[in-house]
TrEMBL record, chain A:
<dbReference type="Pfam" id="PF00550">
    <property type="entry name" value="PP-binding"/>
</dbReference>
<dbReference type="InterPro" id="IPR009081">
    <property type="entry name" value="PP-bd_ACP"/>
</dbReference>
<protein>
    <submittedName>
        <fullName>Acyl carrier protein</fullName>
    </submittedName>
</protein>
<dbReference type="InterPro" id="IPR036736">
    <property type="entry name" value="ACP-like_sf"/>
</dbReference>
<feature type="domain" description="Carrier">
    <location>
        <begin position="16"/>
        <end position="96"/>
    </location>
</feature>
From TrEMBL, chain B:
<keyword id="KW-0012">Acyltransferase</keyword>
<dbReference type="InterPro" id="IPR016039">
    <property type="entry name" value="Thiolase-like"/>
</dbReference>
<keyword id="KW-0808">Transferase</keyword>
<dbReference type="Pfam" id="PF08541">
    <property type="entry name" value="ACP_syn_III_C"/>
</dbReference>
<dbReference type="GO" id="GO:0016747">
    <property type="term" value="F:acyltransferase activity, transferring groups other than amino-acyl groups"/>
</dbReference>
<dbReference type="InterPro" id="IPR013747">
    <property type="entry name" value="ACP_syn_III_C"/>
</dbReference>
<feature type="domain" description="Beta-ketoacyl-[acyl-carrier-protein] synthase III C-terminal">
    <location>
        <begin position="219"/>
        <end position="305"/>
    </location>
</feature>
<protein>
    <submittedName>
        <fullName>3-oxoacyl-[acyl-carrier-protein] synthase-3</fullName>
    </submittedName>
</protein>
<dbReference type="GO" id="GO:0044550">
    <property type="term" value="P:secondary metabolite biosynthetic process"/>
</dbReference>
Length: 100, 309
């Protein structure tokens, strides 16, 4: 058994999918952060502005999976992907293992 | 030049799913799911009825290279993640030395590099033997600990410890496997409970471990593309993926086979992975390989050692 590089299964997302992911991330953030969160947009910084940690970030991705009944490849998920709500939505849209 | 003459390892048969360990330690289902999905950990080897001596004995019994050479062993080093592994006055390593005909050897522990202490012990063993100027002298490096407290079962947000042991014979000179270089970067500034420092540790982890590997490979007069395989510590897969990205080194050449089935076996991972690599035919005669580990706890240490097989 060896590690193989995994390529994203989906190309850059269509705008509707990205919007849907941004909405879902916005709705899940209070649950994951366990507090109310003020106005959130695609440009909101997850770590710097909201205090998301690497662990709560991963929790957010797995919660997103359950809510949208999607399977997301987390192999290539890196720190940069947690930059903003929008960058995380882009990662998820580009790394779906099931049809959105 | 220090050489590793023989390596053996032992893993108890028992396996426990990480979800079971996580539940016992009070982790949530989501936290366990992150370990399985993201860190790619699956189960850990545990021997609930055995002690430390049973683990180390398992490795020693498999060390065929020791048979008939006991009289040559001058030093026995137990490399430890934790400073204290059994309560006073127990001395399982000393008792095993008597059992295996090594009662004449100087026995001591090597630590304070946490999970990178195994590499420190190999280096120390080679230096001691070289200073003795006795070409026949050998040292025995033992690794392996019991995962019997919460702290010794879980590295928060990072890994689960499993039980197992390794034994390796070191000489001051010899053809296989010759140590070409060793680099270690002890980072005392991480000896704090401060949350910001913990986040900084997470931020620099992959880059600092990659830098230790690059330093060791450079000291050996080599380039990364000449390194056949990397034998990692089994902390988790994703940490090593990040190291590979920093190094520009193909992740399929990092022997991560055992991460999901044994967990992080304290200081023994590199030696266990050595045997996996050997069995898979990944170690080729004369080809350099790297054994690397990062240790955390009362500071952090990032270490890498280059060998020629």
């Amino acid at each position: 058994m060896t590690e193989q590089d995994t390529a994203p299964s989906a190309a850059a997302a269509d705008p509707a999918l990205r919007d849907r992911l941004v909405d879902s991330i916005r709705e899940l953030l209070p649950h994951v952060l366990k507090r109310e969160v003020a106005e959130v947009t695609a440009d909101t910084e997850l770590m710097d502005a909201l205090g998301l940690s690497s662990t709560t970030g991963l929790e957010l991705v797995l919660e997103l999976e359950e809510r949208l009944e999607l399977e997301i490849s987390v192999e290539e998920l890196g720190r940069d992907d947690f930059g903003t709500v929008g960058s995380l939505a882009d990662y998820v849209a580009g790394n779906l293992l099931t049809e959105a | 030049m220090t050489a590793v003459v023989a390596v053996a390892a032992y893993l108890p048969e028992g396996r426990v799913r990480i979800e079971e360990v996580a539940g016992r330690l009070g982790l949530s289902g989501m936290q366990a799911k992150i370990f399985r999905r993201y860190h790619k950990l699956g189960e850990v080897a545990l021997d609930p009825h055995g002690g430390l001596a049973d683990l180390l004995r398992g490795a020693l019994r498999r060390l065929d290279g020791l048979r008939g050479q006991e009289h040559r062993v001058r030093y026995v080093l137990h490399a430890r993640t934790f400073p204290t592994v059994v309560p006073y006055p127990h001395d399982p390593v000393g008792e095993l030395c008597e059992e295996f005909g090594l009662g004449h050897a100087a026995v001591f522990a090597v630590g304070h590099h946490a999970c990178a202490s195994g590499l420190l012990a190999v280096d120390a063993a080679g230096r001691l033997l070289a200073a003795d100027d006795d070409r026949d002298g050998l040292a025995l490096v033992l690794t392996g600990e019991k995962a019997f407290t919460g702290e010794a079962q879980l590295v928060p947000e990072t890994s689960f410890f499993g039980e197992g042991a390794a034994a390796c014979l070191v000489s001051a000179a010899g053809e296989r496997d010759r140590m070409l270089a060793y680099a270690t970067d002890p980072r005392g500034e991480f000896d704090t409970d401060d949350q910001e420092t913990a986040l900084e540790f997470q931020r620099v982890y992959a880059d600092t471990l990659a830098a230790a590997i690059t330093a060791a490979v450079g000291r050996a007069g080599l380039a990364m593309d000449e390194v056949g395989v990397i034998l990692p510590h089994n902390v988790n897969r994703v940490a090593w993926h990040q190291v590979c990205r920093t190094l520009g080194y193909p992740r399929e050449r990092v022997v991560l086979d055992n991460v999901a089935t044994t967990g992080h076996v304290f200081c023994a991972d590199g030696f266990i992975n050595y045997l996996t690599a050997r069995d898979r035919g990944l170690l080729r005669q004369g080809e350099p390989y790297v054994m690397a580990a990062a240790g955390a706890g009362s500071g952090a240490t990032f270490s890498a050692m280059v060998f020629a097989h």
